[in-house]
Amino acid sequence: MNAKFLALGNIGDVLCKMAENDEAVKMFNQQLTMARQLKNRKLEAVAFSNLGIIHKKLKQYDKALGYHNQELTVCQEINDIKGECKAHGSLGNIHVCLCNYISASRCYEEQLDRSRDLRDVSLEARAYGNLGITKMNMGHTSDAIGYFESQLALLEQTSGRQALLDRGRAYCNLGNCYESIGDYEESIKYYEKYLTITQSTSSITDQEAAYRYLGNTHRSMGNLQQALVCFEKRLVIAHELNNPEATSSAYGELGCLHSILGNYEQAISCLQHQLQIAKDIGDRLGEGEAACGLGGVYQQMGEFDKALEHHSIDLNIAKELNNTTCQCRAYGNLGLTHESLGNLDNALRLQEKHLSIAIETNDKTAKTLAYSSLGRIHHAQGDYQQAVQYLQQGLQVADQIQHTEDEAKIRHRLGLALWGLGDLEGAQTQLYAAIDLFESMRREAQFNKEYKLSLFDLQTASYQALQRVLVGLGHHDDALVVAERGRTRAFVDLLLERQSLGGDTWYSSLDSSPVTKEIILETVTRQHAAILYFSMAVGYLYSWLILPDKGIVKFHESAVNESDIGSDPEDTQSLKSFRSFSMSTASLLDNYVGQARESLGVESHLSSSRLSLNHLSSHLSETESEADDLWQQHLKEIGEKLNNEHDQTGFLRMEKRNHIWNASSYSLSSLLSFSNGVFANRNNSIRSIASTISASSLASKPALSALYELLIKPMECCLPPTAGHEGCKELILVLQGDLYLVPFALLKPCQMAAPLCERYNLLAVPSVRALQASQMLSKHIKYNPNCTGAVVIGNPKLQPSVVHQWQWSPIPATEHECRMVSELMGCHSLTGANATKENVLREIPNAELIHFATHISWKLAAIVMSPGNFSTTSAVHGNLERMDLSDSSSDIVSLDGPSLPDIIITAADVLNTRLNAKLVVLSSGYSDDHAGRINTDGVVGLTRAFLAAGAQCILFSLWPVPDMASRMLMKTFYTAMLQGARASQALSSAMKTLQNSRQFSHPSNWASWLLIGSDVILSSKVALMGHALCELLKTPDRSREAMRVVLHLVEKSLQRIHHGHRKAMYTTQASIANRVGDVSGWRDLLTSVGFRLEPSMNDLPAAVFFPTFDPGDRLTQCSASLQALLGLPLPTLIALSKMLEHGDVGEMVMSLIRDASSKVGDDGSFQVPVNVRLWRAPGVHEFLASLGFDLVEVGKDDLILRVNKQANRRTLQFGLQSLVAVFGEQNIEIHLFSIIIYVSILSRVTQNIAERRWQGM
C-alpha cells in the first residue's frame, strides 16, 4: 500500500509539471483517502502537504492555507518535529503570497525554532533565508541583511551542490537588499558572487536570474554598456532554457535599455519580439507591457501616430484584464502623446482619467505624474491659475513619497506658472527650490553620467527662467549668481569626480559648493582686471560689468531673438524640435558673425544654405552648397559619436547641450507661453531699469558696428580708461554660446576709433569659477619640476587616401612655424611621420607649452595627427563599428588607410589626459573651412576639454590666415612671452605688429586670434635658472667647478652668436659629466638658457647642442648670475645654500642688501635694522656676516647691523645678484642689468680662469 501511495504522489508530481493541475489534485486526494484508510497519520500529513502545494500553484491560497494547517496539526499530534518544521515553512510561503508578512514572519520563526530543536543546519539556514525574504518585503532591510548573513554563516558548514546553490541564492538576496537601499556597488559584488556560483554549478536557471539582477543594477548606476551585456547574456540563456516567459521578459528589458541608449531600431526589434512571444503563449499582460514599451519608443522618435496605436493596445488589454494599474499607466502615456501632438483637450481628458484611477487605487506615484501633467497642460493652455492648483497638489504628494526628481520637476513648472500669473516672488521661490533639488540630485548621482544628462535640459531651463524672473524683479546681482551657477554645473561635476579620485592637490583645494556673489567679487578683485560678463537667457542677452574693488557697476539687457518656437523644455519632442531649430535657423549673433567674416573677406562660418545670396552665387552652386552642408553635418555627427564614446564623465556632452540651450536663437516662447498682456507688462518694468536694444535697430548697420553696439557700447561709459597701447589694461570677457565666434578684437564705435584690442589686453573665460580655478592653480603650482618645457607638433604626414577621404590637404608651411617656435622655446618638435597620436599623448602631459600647427577640425572637435602604425579595417574601436551612416565614404575606417580614431586627438582624448600646460596654442589658421568649418560646439568642446584637463590658457584662430602672417604673429607673440609678458599682452603686441606691417595690416590677417583661460606667464627663464642653481648649491663645496664649466659653455655660445655662427655645434654630455662629477642641476641650467640635450641614438653619444640665438638675453643673464656666485667666497655659498628652502627670507634679505648697497658711504659705515626672526632664519646670519654686516646692538624685536670697512659696493652687488639668481621674481628683474654692469668687469678675468681649467671640450 505504501508503494501505491508513493506512486500516486509521483503521478501527481508529473501531472503538475505537465500543467495538468486538476488531474494532479485528483491524485493527491486519492493519496489522502488512502492514508485515512490506512489510518497512517504520517502519510496523511504528506497528502495534506501535496494538496497545499498544488493549490498554492493554482493561486487558491485559502484552500492551500487550510491544507497546510491540517498538515501542521497532524505533525504536532504525532510529534513529527521535522514535519512540523516543514509545515511552518509552507504556511509562511502562503502568507508571503498573500502579503501577510507579519503572519509569515511568525511562521518562519516557528520554523527556525523547530530546526534548532532538530539541530539541522540546513533547515535552520532555510528558515533564516525565509525570514530574510519576509523582512525585505516588509521594508526592514537591515533586519533582512542580518538574517541573510546568518544564513550564509550556516551554509558555510554544509557541502554539496544544493548547499552551494543555496549559498549563491543567499548572495542574491543580499544583493537585492543593498540594491533596495541604493548601495549599487555592494549589490553588484553580491550578484557577481551569485553568478560565479551559478556558473560553477551549471545552474542555467540561476544564471538567467543573476544576469537579470546585474543588468538592472548596472542600469540603475548608469553603467548602460555593462547593463547591455548582462541583458544580452540573459536573453541567450533564456532561449537555452526554452522558457518563453523568461525570453519575453528578457526582450522587454533589452528593448527598454536600447530605448534609453537612443538605439531606437534595436529597441523596436526587441519589443516586437516580446510582443510576439507574449501573443504565442497567451500572456496578455506581457502583450500590454510590450505595447507600452513600443509606444514609449515611438514617442521618443516623434512618431506619435504609432505611439498612440500602441498605447491604445496597452489600454485595451488593461481593460480586458480589469487591471487598474495598467489602465492608469496607459491613460497617462496616451495623454503625453496627445500633448506632444498639440491635442491639449484630448490630453486633458486622458490625464484626468489617469488621475481618477490613481486616486482610486491610492497610487501616489501615479498621482504625482498625473497632477504634474495636468498642471503642464493647463499652463500650455494659458490657464495659469488652474495649472498652479494642480501643480501644488502634485508637489504635496511628491513630498509625501519623497520623490525628489518629481518634486524638482513640479517646482520648476510651478515657478513658470506663477510667473505666468505675474507672481514673480512666488516664481522666484519655486525656481530656486527646483535648482537646489536638481543640484542635490546631480551631486548624489556621483558618476552616473546618464542620469545627470537626463536632468540637464530641465535644470538649464530652470536657470534661464530664474534669470528672467530675477531681472524682472530688479535683482540683477542675484541673476548674475544664477547665470554663473548654471554654466558651471559640468565643471563642478568634473571637479567632484577628480577630488574623489585624489592625486591633484589643487583640485582638492577648490570649493565645489554653489557660487555666491561674494565669491564672484572676490575672484574679480584678486584678478585685478575688469570683467564683462555675458549670459544668454531665453532670447535675451544680459551683461554685467564688474570692476575690482568696486563690484558690479552696471547691468544691461538686450533682446536678441523675438521668434516663437513654442516648445516646452519638459517635453522630449519639443526639445528635439528646438534643437533642430537651433541648427537650421541662424541666430542674431550668428548672422552678425557671418556678415562680419564676409566683410573681412573670410568665408562665413554658417552653412552654405544660410549664406547671403551674393556670397553664395560667387562661391558655390546650389548643388555644391547642399553637398557642403551634408559634408559639414556628416563631420559633426562623426565627431559627436567619437567624443561621446570616450567621454567618461559626460562633461563634453553637458557642455554641448549647455551651448544649445544658451544659443541666442532660443526665444522666450520656447520656454513659456505668456499672454500678450503679461509679457508686455513685464517688458515695461524691465525698460524702466535698463534700455533694451531691439534687433531691428541694428539691422541696417554694418555687422561689426552692430556687434559693438550690442556687446560693448552699453558698458562703454563704465569701462576702465586706457592710456594708449603701452598702458593697456586687461579686460576679461566671460563668454557663452555664439559669443565665442565674435571677433572682439575688431569691435569699435566708429571707423576712426581704436579697436578693442588696442585699448585692452583681451582674454575670454567660460565662467568666473574657471577663473577662480586658474587662480588656485597658479597659487599651488608656481614651478613644476616635472614640466619639460615645450612640445611643438606640426605638419602631420597623411596618406593620400586620408587626404582624399577627409579633405585635409598637406600643410608644409607648418614645418617652418614648428622650427621657428622650437628654436625660440629651446625644444624639439614632432613633425611629419613623428607627429603621431601616440607620441603626442605621451609628450604633452608634462609640457608647460603645447603648440599644435596642424589641421584643427572644429566639426570633429579634434586635432589631426599622423597615423603611425595604423589599424586596418579589421580593427575595432569601442562601439564605433556600429555607426550606420548612409554614405559609405562616411565610415570612420578607410579601406586602405588608418581608422579615424588613429589619426585624430579628440576633445574626449584631451579630457582623459592630465595636463600641466600653462599655454596650449592651436595654430588653427592653416585649416581649410571645408575640412571642418568652425562652429561654437567645436570651439567650446575642444577648448573646454583642454581647460578641464589642466591647461590654463588656449590660443586659437577663428578663421584661416596666411602662412606668413601666422608665423610673424607667432614669433612676436612668443618673443614677448619669453621676455616675461602675460599672454594677453603678448597677443596684443603681436596683433599690433601685424597691424603696422605693410603686408599684413588687413584685420583678416591678425584679428582672428582669441585667448581663452587665465592670463598666464610662461615660467620665467630666470625662475628656471634659479631652480637649477638651487640644485647646484645643495652641494656648495662641490658646485663651484660645475658653475665654471657651465659658465664656459655659456660664454662660448655668446661668442658664437655675436659672430653670427649658425652652424650647429655640440659637445658630449659625458665630457661635461666627467668635469662636474655627481653634482646635480647642471643639465637643468643648460636647458633653461637654450642648450638642447639629446639622448644617445644610432651609435652617437648623448650630446649637448649649443644655442644659436639668445631670446630674452637668457645666456647673458645666466653668465652674470654665475659670475656673481663664483665671486662669492665658499662660506657665503654655504650660507646661501641654507636659505634655499625659505624663499620669503631670500626676498627680505634682497631688500636689505639693496637698501644697504645704495646708501653705503665711502668709508663703508652704514647701519641697518634687521628683524630678529629674519636674522635667526637658517643661513641669514652667516650670509650677512660673510658680506661684512656686523652685529652692534640687540633690541626687543630688531637688531642693528653695521656694514664694516671690509665690505664694498661690489661685494654687496655680488651677494644681491646671487640672491636674485636663486630667489628672483618678476618684480626684481629690473635690477638685473644694473647688476650686470658691476659684474661685467670681472667677466674676462673669470672666463680666462675657466679657459685654463677646461680641458677636452
Description:
The structure is a single chain. Helix content is 62%, strand content 8%. With 1257 residues, it is α/β, with parallel strands linked by helices. Residues 503-509, 562-586, 608-620, 659-695, 870-895 and 1225-1257 have low confidence and may be disordered.
Fill in the keyword field for this structure.
1257 residues; alpha/beta; six-stranded mixed sheet; 57 helices; elongated; disordered C terminus; CHAT_dom; TPR repeat; CHAT domain-containing protein
Q: How is the secondary structure organized here?
A:
Layout: H1 2-17, H2 21-37, H3 41-57, H4 61-77, H5 81-97, H6 101-118, H7 121-137, H8 141-155, H9 161-180, H10 184-200, H11 204-221, H12 224-241, H13 244-261, H14 264-280, H15 284-301, H16 304-320, H17 324-340, H18 344-360, H19 364-380, H20 384-400, H21 404-420, H22 424-445, H23 449-472, H24 476-487, H25 489-501, H26 505-508, H27 517-527, E1 530-537, E2 540-547, E3 551-559, H28 572-584, H29 588-599, H30 613-619, H31 622-646, H32 651-661, H33 676-687, E4 692-693, H34 695-698, H35 703-711, E5 729-734, H36 756-759, E6 760-765, H37 768-780, E7 790-796, H38 800-806, H39 813-825, E8 829-832, H40 837-843, E9 849-853, E10 856-857, E11 862-864, H41 900-903, E12 904-906, H42 907-911, E13 919-922, H43 936-949, E14 953-957, H44 963-978, H45 983-995, E15 1009-1013, H46 1021-1033, H47 1036-1058, E16 1066-1068, H48 1069-1076, H49 1082-1088, E17 1092-1094, E18 1103-1105, H50 1114-1126, H51 1130-1138, H52 1143-1159, E19 1167-1171, H53 1172-1176, H54 1180-1186, E20 1189-1194, E21 1198-1203, H55 1209-1223, H56 1232-1240, H57 1243-1253
Parallel strand pairs: 1-5, 3-4, 5-6, 7-8, 7-9, 9-13, 13-14
Antiparallel strand pairs: 1-2, 2-3, 10-11, 11-12, 14-15, 16-18, 17-18, 19-21, 20-21
Helix pairs in contact: 1-2, 2-3, 3-4, 3-5, 4-5, 5-6, 5-7, 6-7, 7-8, 7-9, 8-9, 9-10, 9-11, 10-11, 11-12, 12-13, 13-14, 13-15, 14-15, 15-16, 15-17, 16-17, 17-18, 17-19, 18-19, 19-20, 19-21, 20-21, 21-22, 21-23, 22-23, 23-24, 23-32, 25-32, 27-37, 29-35, 32-43, 39-44, 44-45, 46-49, ...
